[in-house]
Amino acid sequence: MMTSPGRELLDRLARENPLTDFAKNHWSGTFADYLDIVRANPRVTRNAHERIYDMILSHGTDEIVIHKEKITRYRFFDDPIGEGQDAVFGLEKTLSNLVQILESAARGYGTERRVLLLHGPVGSSKSTIVRLLKRGLEQYSRTDDGALYTFSWKDTLPDGSTSLVPCPMHEEPLRLVPIEVRGAFLNALNAESADPAYRINVLGDLDPFCRYHFQQRLAKYGGDWSRVLEDVVVRRLILSEADRIGIGTFQPKDEKNQDATELTGDINYRKIAEFGSESDPRAFNFDGEFNIANRGMIEFVEVLKLDVAFLYDLLGASQEHKIKPKKFAQTDIDEVIIGHTNEPEYKKLQNNEFMEALRDRTVKIDVPYVTRLTDEVKIYEKDYNGRRVKKFIAPHTLEMAAMWAVMSRLETPKNAGLSTLQKLKLYNGKTLPGFTEDNIKELQEEAQKEGMVGISPRYVQDKISNALVAFSDEPNVNPFMVLNELESGLKHHSLITSDDLKVHYRQLLSTVKEEYDEIVKNEVQRAIAADEEALSRLCANYIDNVKAYTQREKVRNKFTGQPEDPDERLMRSIEEKIDIPESRKDDFRREIMNYIGALSLDGKKFDYRTNERLQKALELKLFQDQKDTIKLTSLVSNVLDKETQEKIDIVKGRLIRYFGYDDASATDVLNYVASIFARGDVKQPRTG
Ligand SMILES: Nc1ncnc2c1ncn2[C@@H]1O[C@H](COP(=O)(O)OP(=O)(O)OP(=O)(O)O)[C@@H](O)[C@H]1O
Ligand SMILES: [Mg+2]
């Protein structure tokens, strides 16, 4: 028999990629089977708050120290579904705050009765955080650790065949045990549990639909509830937003179109004819967002845009864990309720009555923008890391855009000696002379609103995309293209209405451009000044001499092995590069030795790259030692002799190897730096 190539491909792919968990995820059995599962692993009965908290923890944690403060970092937010696609960068404090609130909800300390309200400026990753939680829950429900169960009713049809009618709110099977006997039942179950540390505690009654089925059967079996339980099939429950199981989203539409049935379900008019009454639970669809989100979580997008009519549903759902479907009694729910709102919306409603009722029943979690440069860069790298973008993105392009965005969020330091750019660097982990970790904490404390204002990552993302499209005939995108886009977009930015602010943002753009000049000058210098190895050697040499000098010792000559006086000329030639006057040299040298000493107490090794000033000094020295061997300014003239061309190619090669350029962008940057030098702009790079 002939098989088509397509068929063969399909067979092979199916063989190689079986859905291994299919059987597990589709487990079904009797109620008694389920009791065996619960006895062996009582945690399958966890409520939604317990489950979401455990889900986050299941990914692991790290203890980190940021500016002397110990913070628990939750790996969940790094890459929850393991595809490197979605992540929240930075925001360790915000996330640890959020997880703490979930922890106290899981323990039943009260926050389980509140709406969790993520609040922050536009584009601060509120939706991203909620999305991660949803995806995380979906995935967790597929694992052994995160397993949960629900049930269907066996229904005998008039023709004698049976069908399964699922519980519309996919409730925990133990809710089938009548409230009157539940306590005793759970006590007995807990006594037999394989995990006594976890106490099974299933609260709440069945939804109206299941209640109806229950009552009917109870009558049929003369009140023997255990026989009713024989009429159900218990099955594994996999949460899935796409299937509207356990994960819901409510998004306000235009006000006239909002209807409470979207939250709590609606009458099924077709079925009224069949069942004769509007209040027959079989003629009602329990498919509102609150219904379907039972067991997992519900997200309220822009919760403050919600019509007041919904307020009571929301407040009841959070405070009482109950919703009120039309024509039915209050119905118990078990789900985490998370809303989000942006700062402008929140401000607008600050004095509103609606807000007051809500504020009282919410836990507000501030989600600021990232204020650490490296984290902001990661946001853009995630978007443009090669796969979706065919164009080459020149080094520092994303970094410069990120630098501007982060600076726009920082308050100008009160300390006149510190620029906003320097503050950014301090936050980013660079050391600056005269600034300690305590100073950085003080800086953060004096700027309480920091991160809650400024440019949003979304604006920057849009402009980077524009730049990618706008310069379609260019082989790459460089920082100038993106910075220009960022600048021209300011004119039409709908959220920045203040002219002063625009002026401020433009100033920051020129600061970024200056910084870019410094960075590329420095890179070209470093590319010329050989490699990191030579720098490390120079550094080691310098440190040896400084050490000998401060301790009034001799240095051993590498070649002769003879002790000699520290090489004052070498030390000064480095220090002069960063304007250390003769009178300050002792202080500077001591500072460095203290720094190295402190590091070694912590068991850490000194790396000159963490000391920006020293690094600059070393590079300038090395550059000076080598620059005459290459005539950079001759690049501008475009007529190069063979020897110069060869040297330039070496430099270009280093730019490509060490600094991530491609051929075209390396040529660009060499030309650009050559033009800076040709302008006679030979001012020493700023230090810091
Ligand atoms: N800390 C961060 N980590 C990762 N990505 C971030 C971060 N902050 C912002 N982003 C990115 O910025 C973009 C906007 O984020 P998101 O939509 O989650 O913001 P939001 O707070 O919900 O905004 P809005 O208030 O406008 O609804 C997304 O592409 C997101 O990935
Ligand atoms: Mg959002």
Topology-level CATH name of the largest domain = Rossmann fold
Q: Give the N-terminus to C-terminus distance in angstroms.
A: 76 Å
As a percent range, the share of strand residues is 5-15%
From the alpha carbons, calculate the radius of gyration and give it in angstroms: 33 Å
Indicate the CATH class of the largest domain.
Alpha Beta
Helix % is: 40-55%
Strand order of the largest sheet: 8-11-14-4-15
Task: Note the main sheet.
Answer: 5 strands, parallel
Which class best fits the helix and strand makeup? alpha/beta
Number of domains: 3
> Which outline best applies?
elongated
Task: Report the total helices.
Answer: 29
Note poorly predicted spans. 683-688
Determine the mean pLDDT: 89
Number of strands: 19
**Bound compounds, please?**
adenosine-5'-triphosphate, magnesium ion
Question: Can you tell me about this structure?
Answer:
There is one protein chain. This protein has 688 residues and is of the alpha/beta class. It has three domains: 345 residues, Rossmann fold; 154 residues, no CATH class; 91 residues, no CATH class. It is built from 29 helices and 19 strands. The protein has a five-stranded parallel sheet. The chain binds adenosine-5'-triphosphate and magnesium ion. The site of adenosine-5'-triphosphate has 19 residues, from helix 6 and helix 20.
